[in-house]
Amino acid sequence: MYLEIVSPEKVLLSAEVDSVTVPAIEGEFQMLNNHAPIISVLEKGVIKVEGNIEISKDLKEVVNKAQDGKWHFPIKGGVLEMKNNKAIVLAD
């Protein structure tokens, strides 16, 4: 599936990924390819992205790769929309 993580300052990620896990208000959940359409409010936490992606040098101070092999993007909150194998996160 395709994932975009966008902050007010810039696009943090725009890539094909295997999975994404988000910190939603009602609890953390994971999305894989062909996930049902959903819109969700996100709370402060970490977006976990699994896949073979390239992280720009200017993001390496903020984004890290955890021991589980997933990339961790910390957020203060935001909104997620998933439909047609494309997830867009508008993150604070």
List keywords for this structure.
92 residues; mainly beta; ATP Synthase, domain 1; five-stranded mixed β-sheet; five-stranded antiparallel β-sheet; 57% strand; globular
General description of the model:
This protein is an all-beta fold. It has a single domain (2-91), classed as Sandwich (ATP Synthase, domain 1). Helix content is 0%, strand content 57%. The chain has a five-stranded mixed sheet, with no helix packed on it. Strand 1 (2-6) and strand 2 (11-16) form a beta hairpin. Residues 1-92 form the ATP synthase F1 complex delta/epsilon subunit N-terminal domain. It comes from Mesonia phycicola. Produces ATP from ADP in the presence of a proton gradient across the membrane. GO terms for molecular function: proton-transporting ATP synthase activity, rotational mechanism.
In short:
The chain has a single domain (2-91), classed as F0F1 ATP synthase delta/epsilon subunit, N-terminal (ATP Synthase, domain 1, Sandwich).
Largest sheet: 5 strands, mixed
Specify the CATH architecture.
Sandwich
By CATH reckoning, the class would read Mainly Beta
Low-confidence stretches: none
Radius of gyration: 12 Å
Into which percentage range does the β-strand content fall?
over 45%
- Classification by helices and strands: mainly beta
Oligomer: single chain
For the largest beta sheet, what order do the strands appear in spatially? 2-1-10-9-5
The chain-level mean pLDDT equals: 92
Number of domains in the coordinates? 1
Roughly how many Å apart are the termini? Answer: 22 Å
Shape descriptor: globular
The SSE string, one letter per element, is: EEEEEEEEEE
Number of strands: 10
